[in-house]
Amino acid sequence: MAPGKSRAQKNRPSLPRRTDKRIDALLSLLSENTTIVISGAQIAKEIGVRRQTVWRWIETLRAAGVKVKGHPRTGYHIERAADVLAPKLLARGLRGTPFAKHIFHFFKVDSTNTVAMRLGEEGEAHGTVVVAEEQTSGRGRAGHSWHSEKAAGIYVSILLQPQISPMLAPALTLVAGLAAYDAIAEGSGLLPDIRWPNDVLLKGKKVCGILTEMQTEPDRMHFAVVGIGINVNQSKMPGELASIATSMRMETGRAHSRLELLARLLWHLDRYYNQFIAEGAAPILRRFAEVSSYFEGKRVRISTSTDNFVGTTAGLEPMGILRVKRDDGKIESVISGTVAEAE
Ligand code: BTN
């Protein structure tokens, strides 16, 4: 058996291969020299591959929505910096945060959360970011799936290793929701809402969902994976999602840079996370109360694995758990479950 690996670890399927560093270099090269035509030979020399490989990778970028002009005989160029969430392009906007160093990018993957959980088990560092252009099995809360159209949204999972008790997990999920709220507010120029614990809404429809998963011992969190999905440039939402979900583009009438939005999201996450670690949950709860119409006085329907009832929200408990007052006056503490606005 490989040293340091348990039998269970050894028998697991290997992790999907992340985007080749040289494709990352190719994208940076094109993005740093927009409008300049660079010959295939020059690119090949610069990134250290054969010309045929350059041609193949240019096709990969085109399939991911990058508008690369030109062909093997004349050379290639792009008119504006590519909006691909590739490590080199992303890291530029993240210097000074713990998220710039370990970025795993995939053009297509089943679920960034699944990959990040595996990386957590394998001991990857705090701040590791897993990001994809497309997910084939994006996972949502309560066993739902997450619609992950290619190059239209942000599908990102962040590995965190806070030295906290698992009791504080609900507050950690609020931290992620607040970061997404600020990024979406700044990026869209609109005023979002947060539905507890961390769905971000634009005009009452969901624009962002967050799935937090963790590995814990009774008194200690090993690591948490915060998986964030933001609908950015979708021009419509499919089927039954149309009445409950929206995208930033659908609400603002213009396309948004995913690269810029993701950098904003991670900056805000760094800020709220540091505040949470330094000062505890109290400032996080205060900020939630400021920005969420669900904090207090909202008629809601609560569905948990064991219960389904209507009541009125009555603030949060110190760890971030939602309090809901039933119509008979009894206060319920909702640790997890689905919250919907009641008619
Ligand atoms: C929800 O149901 O609201 C949570 C949705 C979370 C979706 C994101 S997309 C990136 C990450 N990878 C996943 O498989 N899920 C999360």
Can you walk through the features of this model?
With 343 residues, the protein is an alpha+beta fold. The chain contains ten helices and 14 strands. It has helices spanning 7-11, 21-32, 40-47, 51-63, 87-92, 112-121, 169-188, 248-252, 258-279, 282-291, and strands at 68-71, 75-78, 103-106, 129-132, 153-160, 193-195, 199-202, 205-217, 220-231, 296-303, 308-316, 322-326, 331-334, 338-341. It has a seven-stranded mixed sheet with strand order 3-4-5-9-8-7-6, sandwiched between helices. Strand 6 (193-195) and strand 7 form a beta hairpin. Helix 3 (40-47) packs across helix 4, helix 7 (169-188) packs antiparallel against helix 9 and helix 7 crosses helix 10. The N and C termini lie far apart (59 Å). The structure holds biotin. Biotin binds next to helix 6, strand 5, strand 8 and strand 9.
Give the helices and strands, then pairings.
Elements: H1 7-11, H2 21-32, H3 40-47, H4 51-63, E1 68-71, E2 75-78, H5 87-92, E3 103-106, H6 112-121, E4 129-132, E5 153-160, H7 169-188, E6 193-195, E7 199-202, E8 205-217, E9 220-231, H8 248-252, H9 258-279, H10 282-291, E10 296-303, E11 308-316, E12 322-326, E13 331-334, E14 338-341
Parallel strand pairs: 3-4
Antiparallel strand pairs: 1-2, 4-5, 5-9, 6-7, 7-8, 8-9, 10-11, 10-14, 11-12, 12-13
Helix pairs in contact: 3-4, 7-9, 7-10
Biotin (BTN) binds at residues 111-113, 135, 138-141, 144, 146, 155-157, 199, 209-211, 227-229.
